Amino acid sequence: MRAATWTGVNEVSVETVPDPAILNDRDVILRVSRTTTCGSDLHLLGGYIPAMRVGDVLGHEFMGEVVEVGSGVRDRRVGDRVVVNSFIACGNCWYCRQELYSLCDNGNPNPGITEGLWGQSPGGCFGYSHAMGGFAGSHAEYVRVPFADVGTFVVPEEVSDDRALFASDAVSTGWMGADLAGTKPGDTVAVWGAGGVGQMAARAAMLLGAEQVYVVDRLPERLEQVRQHVGAEVIDYSTTDVMAELRERTGGRGPDVCIEAVGMEAHSTGVQNVYDQVKQQLRLQTDRPSAVREAIMACRKGGSVFVLGVFAGPVDKFPLGAAMNKGLIIRGAQVHGQRYTPRILEHMARGELTTEHLATHVMPLEDAARGYEMFKAKEDGCVRAVFLPHG
Amino acid sequence: MDLNQLIGRATGLAGGAGAALLKQLQHVRVPGAGQASATDDPERAAQRWRAVTVLRDPAEVSASLPAPLAALGDRVEVRVTPAPGDRGAELAARYRGTPTEQQVGDLRAALRESKALLEVGEVLRMEPQPHGRRAATPQGAALEGAAAAAPREGVL
After folding, report:
1. Strand pairing of A87-88 and A124-125?
2. Residues A317-364: pLDDT tens digits?
3. Which of A27, A168, A268, B16 is 20 to 30 A away from residue A249, measured at CA?
4. Low complexity bias: where (chain B) (predicted)?
């Protein structure tokens, strides 16, 4: 089959690779109909997560049709049109029973790597380095999906592929941030980052009853998408003092909930940006946490900060004093998609959650290298490149 | 020695280095990396109980130890105790005497596989799976060495 593989720092190649096979009883094989780039892929591509092997198949946000079913699969049939969560979870361990699926104890066959880095191992993820299990990703004609009864969801007839695709990861990640940050009716929520995840965090906050929702970014086309398709207000951080703006718009309090949806390659302005870029390039810090810093500083006293962006290691100039003295709740997670996908599909079916606008560039899988170039450079207003493995 | 042999030698060494790096990862002490306390001396570290919490009834776990743990036989002591807060059973084991690093790795892998068998019914298999061309480079070999060692390493 054809698949998009990582071939070096910022290099992607589409090549012929072996087909996947059922390896465990609870696996299915999926014929991938749509698979999309995600901002967190850029950390892998750029070599910031040093556990990628040349030849690894990329991709973790996808949907398709079940074409083969393992003997232990109960609820999926050949022909089912399903969307698949990016994290691989068994459904049986204590973490899965608490609906903390990305923390599954049995989903990552390489726990020694992440235990060494972080003290404990999270679950595994498709196409997300050997630290996260080394699973082949979804930018391919076919993909093996372990624990299929837990991580795949049949898409309702009235939801199109173009919409359902993003229930896989972007919407479920955004929804998780808004939910686990404790968004309540009447809250003010600020989201840093107007990519797919940030937009969906904002939309989820609105659906959870937030009264005011602001999205912070610098890219005009993404801010326009927020206005048009999400219905939130926007702040351009390249021209506006974000903290002053938020204070002004919230009666001096600051947002109740601050959601960071940017990750380890955040951009900022002025000296801070230069400082973080230099330290990261010299490997004196692994991540650039400028959006997290600002979220902590902007948040109201006793508020909640949720880190949705992907980080890998220690960061510098973390405002722990602000977090402690303001009594903040700080939480983060990789996506517990299985917890949210059913309700997301219901919202999609009712037309309350639309995502088609995120797919700004749809192309054959053969063009994946070009798609990633556009996505990385945000060329031509690229928010997400979506690949069609079967044309 | 020609270039290919040199690359082959470097690649082989790198694979071992990757596994060795992983072994030491949890003890890396650079500012901001985590551990603030003293570390165990190697003998005490090797003799510690190693434990996984399994979401199964403790009596059920005690009644029939999974094959990977049972295979270690009398070389290890095994302890099963109820986990607090309805979390199931704490399944712990340690070697009698002072084990080698290899034996500790065997025990980590056995405990992880036992947990998977008890909770899931099978252990995730990873090979074969699709991948593109893999050039024989020292970096790649180091990562493969680390990944191959990963089920037997970590803080368990």
Report:
1. antiparallel
2. 889 999 999 999 999 999 999 999 999 999 999 999 999 999 999 999
3. A268
4. 135-150
In B, which residues are within 8 Å of A104 by CB distance? none
- Kindly state the DSSP code that residue A309 receives in the 8-state scheme: S
> Given this model, what pLDDT does residue A348 score?
97
Nearest beta carbon to residue A116 from set B22, B112, B125: B22
Q: B41-120: what CATH class? A: alpha beta
Taking the C-alpha atoms of residue B8 and residue A79, their distance in angstroms, rounded to an integer, is: 46
Nearest-Cα residue of chain B relative to residue A142: B130
Give yes or no for a contact between A123 and A101, defined as CB atoms under 8 angstroms apart.
yes
Mean pLDDT of chain B: 84
> H-helix or E-strand containing A385?
strand A385-388
User: Strand, coil or helix: what is A332?
Assistant: strand
Whether this prediction's pTM lies above 0.80 is answered by: yes
CA count, 13 A, side-chain hemisphere, A118 = 13
Q: Which residues of A touch B88 (CB under 8 A)?
A: 94
Q: Distance between CA A268 and CA A289 in Å, rounded?
A: 9
Domains of chain A: 2-169+335-388 (3.90.180.10), 171-332 (3.40.50.720)
- Output the pLDDT for position B7: 47
The residue type found at A183 is T
pLDDT in tens, A252-278: 999 999 999 997 766 777 777 777 777
Is it the case that residue B15 has pLDDT exceeding 70? Answer: no
What is the 3 state secondary structure string of A44-71?
Answer: HHCCCCCCCCCCCECCCEEEEEEEEECC
Instruction: Write the ipTM.
Output: 0.89
